[in-house]
Specification:
The protein has 3 helices and 7 strands. The protein is of the alpha+beta class. A 7-stranded antiparallel beta sheet has the order 1-7-6-5-4-3-2.
Length: 148
């Protein structure tokens, strides 16, 4: 008989230099009107967001596709403007398991280095799908701030 050792859940880490200040980037992550402009990876045509921006407050982001919607919910764990935002992230893409996203914003001259870490993903497939999604979202965020 073999002993099964649970594997360590995958961790994603995405970094991107954004043409904006940490204050501007933090505001973009915490404003529903801003989120709907860039929180739309892949085939998502638009997004709507409802935020209760306080530690323990919940949010819902609905990504609309032509034939379906993807609902993402979570709870804010840490809100430290303009440096850090930590929240849970739960959706069909996480098999409805609670995962954890940490956004760190580091000043780099007139720009900001965004470091996104997504932990506790249920499996490698979920991690691969989220990696594609988050990379697309971060690119759209950069475009939102005027990067060509």
């Amino acid at each position: 008989m073999t002993t099964h050792h649970p594997s360590t859940p995958p961790v994603l880490r995405i970094t991107k230099l954004l043409p904006a200040t940490p204050e501007e980037v933090f505001a973009a992550w915490t404003d529903p009107a801003s989120l709907k402009e860039w929180m739309s990876p892949g085939t998502v045509t638009s997004a709507t967001a409802t935020l209760d921006l306080r530690v323990g407050g919940r949010f819902q982001i609905v990504m609309h596709r032509e034939n379906s919607d993807a609902v993402h919910v979570g709870e804010y764990r840490e809100i430290s403007p303009p440096k850090r935002l930590v929240f849970t992230w739960q959706s069909d893409g996480t098999l409805q398991q609670e995962t954890l996203v940490t956004i760190e914003l580091l000043p780099r001259g007139k720009q900001t280095e965004l470091v996104l870490v997504h932990e506790l993903l249920p499996n490698e497939h979920s991690a691969a799908q989220h990696k594609i999604g988050w990379q697309n979202i971060v690119e759209k965020l950069s475009i939102y701030f005027g990067e060509a």
